[in-house]
């Protein structure tokens, strides 16, 4: 998978913009953080990986090339161990809506939320 032709970090908007010959994609920092390819997020075996909650306000400090095959993203919460291959970034672009909905459902099912300052409460009865 070829790399994007251009990568723009918009710190104020907390987004990463990827320009490809056939499309342009805008990926929010929160989305990239909760779908980090790191072992911390993906886990060490098969399955859905570890659910990452409370990242609504996360931003991106900087990005750097990881060889010629990937991008390393440095988040402002200190997370920087995920190496996003060009193929995985394109997958995140093309499946953003489905992945985001799946993430929101996992959060709800786990009784967790996106905002670290809020504690979701389920009312019984």
TrEMBL record:
This is DUF971 domain-containing protein. It comes from the Bacteria. It comes from Microbulbifer elongatus. Residues 7-90 form the Gamma-butyrobetaine hydroxylase-like N-terminal domain. It holds the Pfam family GBBH-like_N. Gene3D superfamilies: 3.30.2020.30. Signal peptide: none annotated. InterPro entries: GBBH-like_N, GBBH-like_N_sf. Keywords: Iron, Metal-binding.
């Amino acid at each position: 998978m070829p790399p994007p032709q251009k990568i723009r970090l918009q710190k104020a908007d907390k987004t990463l913009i990827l320009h490809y010959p056939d499309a342009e994609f805008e990926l929010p920092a929160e989305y990239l953080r909760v779908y980090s390819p790191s072992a911390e997020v993906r886990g060490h075996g098969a399955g859905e990986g570890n659910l990452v909650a409370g990242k609504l306000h996360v931003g991106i400090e900087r990005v750097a090339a990881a060889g010629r095959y990937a991008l390393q993203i440095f988040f402002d919460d200190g997370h920087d161990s995920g190496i996003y291959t060009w193929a995985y970034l394109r997958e995140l672009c093309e499946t953003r809506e489905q992945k985001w909905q799946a993430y929101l459902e996992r959060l709800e099912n786990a009784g967790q939320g996106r905002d670290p300052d809020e504690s979701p409460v389920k009312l019984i009865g």
